[in-house]
Amino acid sequence: MAICRPLHALVMLVDDEAEHVALAAAELKRCPYVRGVIQASSGTEAKALLEERGQSGGELPDLIFLDLHAHGGLELLEDLREFEPVFRPSAPRVMVLSRSLAEPGRMQVLEHPFVIDYVIKPLMAYDASRVLKRTRRGRPNLRLVPPAKEKKKAS
Length: 155
Known about the structure:
The protein is 40% helix and 21% strand. By secondary structure, it is α/β, with parallel strands linked by helices. It has a single domain (5-154), classed as Response regulator (Rossmann fold). The strands form 2 sheets. Strands 3-2-4-5-6 form a 5-stranded parallel β-sheet, sandwiched between helices. It has a two-stranded parallel sheet with strand order 1-7. Helix 3 (73-83) links the parallel strand 4 and strand 5 (94-98).
């Protein structure tokens, strides 16, 4: 019988718009399933952070919110393939941040194996909760429990 562990996700936010980063980071911190937010202002910076964490045995994010229009954003999406072994037992999961669902190339991006879906900016706490519930699929040993409720159960 598998033991269920709570998912208090570590999330990476990759966006070069300072206003959106501030709002999205605050919203993510309000989400009861998010325990930490790693911020990067470009795909290049995000890749460097992932490499550093991977090499040092540090924790990798459970979910990446990625603005493809941030400098190096599209390149990061392709570069994630080299990180796949480090993300084991599951592949990296990416939500693409966008200003519009009518972006050219949207369907091609959605066909990428790590992309779950698009989220329209601004990113809100309910978006993160909805996405984290969806990313749990395929990981049956994880259950979503807000940190406060988990502490009460342990008492």
